[in-house]
Queue: 2 jobs
Job 1
Amino acid sequence: MEPNLIQIFGSYMSWKLNENTWIINFMNGSQNMYLLEGREKALLIDTGWGAGNLRALVEKLTSKPVIVTNTHGHLDHSGGNGEWEEVLMLPGSEGDLFTCHRSPFDVSKLPFPDYVRKIVKDGDRVELGGRTIELIDISAHSNGSLAYLDRGAGFLFVGDELESAQVLMYETEAIPGYAFDLDARLRAHHKNMLRLRALEGQWNTLLPAHNGAPIAHGYLDDYISLVEHIYAGDAIIEDKLNHFYAEQSDPEHRLCRVRRGSASFFVNKADMMKLYGANTL
């Protein structure tokens, strides 16, 4: 029997990364959220699709008051926001918040559909009691992406901006006020990854939201190199995405995969060819 959508998007399992950090995994193992506990409070990074009952699981894992935050506003990371009264996010995340009214993702049916969106900024800190989490703006994949640096544990949580399979770097849906400029996004991504690499002495464990965690530090170097080789004109371009969901959403085959080493982006091919070999990074 094929699993239903609730089973895929709302069935959660969890395990400890260390004594006070949990990975909460779902979507058939392909996506992670994280729960970080301090002496006084806990921090939940991302809320999934809004299917199932994530809050019930979180409250089984910790008895501490929970602060909720989104790495970014895409629905698979913010759909469950309405299970809580308040969520921390960057300003750009508000533009990415998609409302889905199709079962099981009807966010208007969650307990707090009008939850408070508390806007944060680069450099802000979340104090959990003996554990400080630093917020870093790494927006490129989305209009408002946060990384979370836990210097004490050596953890760096990077959302969708860095992962082992591919980073989506194309406009998935036109958003008023947020034009998607591939050149600007790639330059921002390159700058952001250089910034994270400069902090490497402050972290030792790299934790993305999709496709495995933790991942090797070498992925960070490969993504830096990928952008450089796009502008140099010798990154590898592949028309075959080898990604079921992306291919289903691209019937006109406008997307391609561009890669270097273990890093790859999904991009609009026409936009990519305007930049490829421009040698102006």
Note: The mean pLDDT is 90.
Job 2
Amino acid sequence: MRSMKPRWARATGMTMTTIASVFSARALRAAVALSAVAVVSVLGAGGVASEGSPAPDQIWRSIFARPAARAVDELEAKKQALGAMLFSDTRLSRDGDRSCASCHRPESGYSDGLRQARGRDGTALKRNTPHLFNLAEGKAFYWDGREPTLESQARVPLTAENELAADWARTLADLGADLDLRAKFAAAFADGGVSEATVIAALAAYERSLVSPLTAFDRWVAGDEAALSEQESRGFRIFVGKGGCVGCHGGWRMTDDGFHDIGVDSDDPGRSAVAGGAAGIPAFKTPGLRQVSKTAPYMHNGSLATLEDVVAHYAGGHLKRPSLAPNLVRDLDLDAQERSALVAFLKTL
């Protein structure tokens, strides 16, 4: 009978028991599909190990390789440029003192460095500000995935009373009175008008353009063996091996776009409060790990201050409950050096 084990797992020596313990059912299916693509890619390049199995590093490089840059036509480029301007424009807020960039700061990986986002009155909101990198391929947005598109996502903070709270009549009048900006709207949109719909479309176009910069890990993926230090390389082996991190953080964006309960101490219902979410399971979206060293603190409520804290969480610091993601049934068993190596690798992303 043909083995059900993915070829990358056979090449790395992972048993089915190990695979089952680190992959959720959905993530495992995705990994198998990814590995199949990787095998075809590697074999096509002639990269075959001594016994006919693709070399593990070649498989991982295929899985984590960035896709070709998304093609953008002239009109889309104009929308992106307009969206970039609007992203930092305080005229979108009722009080004229806030913009999208107030919480999604480019210098902080499009997050804000705070445990929880701050509302109009300065009070803490419910959740940590997520980064905005690599959203073009995303499937659901916000920590609970309640918005299906970037357009619907962009609308929420614009109108939320505790965020920008835009007064659309006044906002559109102010933007329309700016002759230079009005000309940019006319160039970017066929109808040429400054409207709620075109403002939101421009912001969404800009968000789609935000791709995380190339890093040391990308250089390693491209074939540069010297791109990662010995410690960082060891951390990568832990990430894809005994750590099981790749079970949820696979692919070039380092996310399965899924929703999981990872045992964070919080009374937030997460995905369970959204239509289609599993009742009673406080699951949250798997964040992409690109630029993760710049987006502290971590988790949906910002409860973990450092990457070291995150590793400690998975090593047994999480709450134990029946709804935990399958790969958290066993605590992460890493010694101090292994934990340091894993953190060092995460900083290469």
Note: Residues 7-65+214-346 form a domain with the Cytochrome Bc1 Complex; Chain D, domain 2 fold (CATH 1.10.760.10).
